[in-house]
Design brief:
With about 325 residues, this protein is of the alpha+beta class. It is about 35% helix and about 15% strand.
Length: about 325
């Protein structure tokens, strides 16, 4: 009886550690699949204490690669009932834009929450999902990562089989890109000179690709006036000097480009023109003068949105 209890105890501990069923652990029929190493990720960027243990995610990816439905279901069950931080980490590092084949909750996460830019709210969003939505999101996240991981070997090399065990992946979020208001001036439009603000990235962390792909800034065509966007101009409450733009998502959170402590200088002429027009052009990325702006526009190196002014009652 004592030996039997000891064997059962080992099986239970193995089942908990590996995510396998007690029956398989007890029968010593566990599967072992080549898996990448996913480094544990701190919850600090997500606004929560603790560290995400990514071992179940690695096991799910390995099982998906091996086409082992039993092990995949076992690892997914662990993630479904486990720490929401693991799902938030996977979501915040999505290497592939979800397409039509994924669930609605994944599209909401991608388009409204924008997990690459909003790590704390990504965690809140995931943590508050219903069981059904959580399962749908988990299925999509594991599916995306299973597709992508074999191609992370570098040099165009696809990893297969045991090579996966040599792959170490750190999903720690990078610090958010820094954008800052730079200059105010005027650009030509069919309605005449129009007030404009330029955005730069002083530490070079931001890029035109990020502004276009993540934040939806379209390419700027010289001499045109875009339609008013959902990006609202942010101004110093006293001087009215602009410091950036902000966009409210449909889930009640804000995306902000710029910082109040770094406003751009603005003349009274510019401020009056902005008030009269009710909006300004916001151009990114540009750190030069307005006189040489046209060459960057012609080279398609500038994106722009037209931002309405924030109205205060």
């Amino acid at each position: 009886m004592t030996k039997d209890h000891a064997r059962k105890g080992r099986a239970r501990r193995t089942a908990r550690r590996t995510g396998s069923s007690y029956t398989s652990a007890n029968a010593d029929t566990l599967h072992v699949h080549p898996a990448p190493t996913l480094i544990p990720v701190s919850g600090t960027p997500f606004g929560v204490p603790g560290t995400a243990d990514m071992s179940a995610a690695a096991a799910a990816i390995a099982a998906g690669q091996a086409d082992c439905e039993w092990c995949l279901a076992s690892a997914m069950a662990m993630m479904m009932l486990g720490d929401s931080l693991v799902l938030a980490v996977l979501a915040a590092s999505l290497p592939l834009v979800p397409n039509e084949g994924f669930s609605p909750v994944t599209h909401v996460l991608w388009s409204e929450v924008q997990p690459h830019a909003n790590h704390p709210y990504t965690y809140v969003f995931v943590d508050r999902l219903t069981a059904a939505h959580r399962q749908n999101l988990l299925d999509d996240l594991v599916d995306i990562w299973t597709r992508v991981v074999p191609h992370l070997g570098g040099g165009g090399r696809t990893l297969t089989g045991p090579d996966l065990t040599s792959l170490i992946i750190d999903l720690t979020p990078a610090p958010p890109s820094v954008y800052q208001a730079a200059q105010t001036g005027f650009v030509p439009t069919p309605q005449g000179p129009f007030p404009a603000l330029t955005l730069t990235s002083p530490d070079m962390s931001g890029s035109i690709e990020e502004l276009a792909e993540r934040y939806g800034f379209p390419l700027y065509v010289w001499g045109t006036l875009p339609n008013v966007s959902t990006w609202v101009l942010q101004q110093h409450p006293k001087t009215r000097h602009p410091w950036g733009v902000r966009q409210a998502s449909r889930v009640g959170r804000y995306l902000t480009l710029g910082a109040p402590k770094h406003p751009a200088d603005a003349t009274s002429e510019w401020l009056e023109a902005a008030e009269q027009a009710g909006s300004v052009m916001v151009l990114g990325l540009w750190g030069g003068g307005f006189g040489s702006l046209v060459h960057a526009v012609q080279a398609q190196e500038i994106v722009a949105v037209r931002s309405p002014l924030q109205r205060h009652d």
